Amino acid sequence: AGVARASRRDESGNWQAIYGRSKIMDMLRGAQNASMHRYLTSLSTYGLLRHLTDKKLKALFRAMQEAGLLMTTGGEMPLLTLTPKGEDVMQSRCPAKVSPRGWSDKPRPGGEATSGRSRAAQRVLQGLALGRTDKELLSRLRELRRDIAQEHNLPVYRVLHTETLRELATLKPTTLEAASRLKGVGPYTARRYLRAFVELIQAYEGVD
């Protein structure tokens, strides 16, 4: 998932790369440095693979490219995105068969991914999928905003602007810290209303 949230879909539905491998790896490791784009730190996949060392994460990316799940663009600064096969794995339409060499602590005979290795590959792919708004989640967020606005006798835009709701439904931040970084979320909004929206996203994503 990590690779998918750092890519965009074009008009034909294909994935378009916008970040290089190093930037995506930093996002998945939860890196905190000046070059880390604010958008990447707000993704729900930020820091998902912090348990892997830099060496192991590089080995995982190589294995996923060898398995046909990732591809790079040409040029002086190649960018990384997922393939149609990678999207199938991300959506659990087929298993991820990834070599464990160099990144998995317990390699098994035959080299195919166990369920744990498959989940790690899925997290990378999901993190590369950027820009696809979850319409069902957006609908639920709109309902919550309406309920809060009615409770406080406010117009809905005073709770959260629609564009902010779209960012919540696209990025799916599962912590107050990540959600508070989004455009349109000021200190008052974060303190008064944001927790309810984050809790809805947590429930929707199955996050405790």
Describe it:
Residues 93-119 are annotated as: Disordered. Its EC number is 5.6.2.4. It holds the Pfam family RQC. InterPro entries: HRDC-like_sf, HRDC_dom, HRDC_dom_sf, RQC_domain, WH-like_DNA-bd_sf, WH_DNA-bd_sf. This is DNA 3'-5' helicase. This protein is mainly alpha-helical and 208 residues long. It is built from ten helices and four strands. The longest helix is centred in the C-terminal third of the chain and has 18 residues, at 135-152. It is elongated, with a radius of gyration of 18 Å. The protein has a two-stranded antiparallel ribbon. Strands 3-4 form a two-stranded antiparallel ribbon. 46% of the residues lie in helices and 7% in strands. Helix 6 (135-152) crosses helix 7 (162-171) and helix 6 (135-152) runs antiparallel to helix 10. It has two domains: 4-129, Orthogonal Bundle (Arc Repressor Mutant, subunit A), CATH 1.10.10; 135-205, HRDC domain (DNA polymerase, domain 1), CATH 1.10.150.
The helical percent reads 40-55%
The CATH architecture classification of the largest domain is: Orthogonal Bundle
Element-by-element helix/strand order: EEHHHEEHHHHHHH
Report the sheet-strand fraction: 5-15%
The average pLDDT score comes to 77
CATH fourth-tier homologous superfamily of the largest domain = Winged helix-like DNA-binding domain superfamily/Winged helix DNA-binding domain
Shape: elongated
Rg, rounded, reads: 18 Å
Low-pLDDT parts are 107-114
What is the count of distinct domains? Answer: 2
Mind telling me the CATH class of the largest domain? Mainly Alpha
> Which strand order does the major sheet show?
1-2
Structural class: mainly alpha
Query: What is the count of DSSP helices, taking H or I runs of 4+ residues?
Result: 10
- The N- and C-terminal alpha carbons lie at a distance of 19 Å
Strand count, sense and barrel status of the largest sheet are: 2 strands, antiparallel
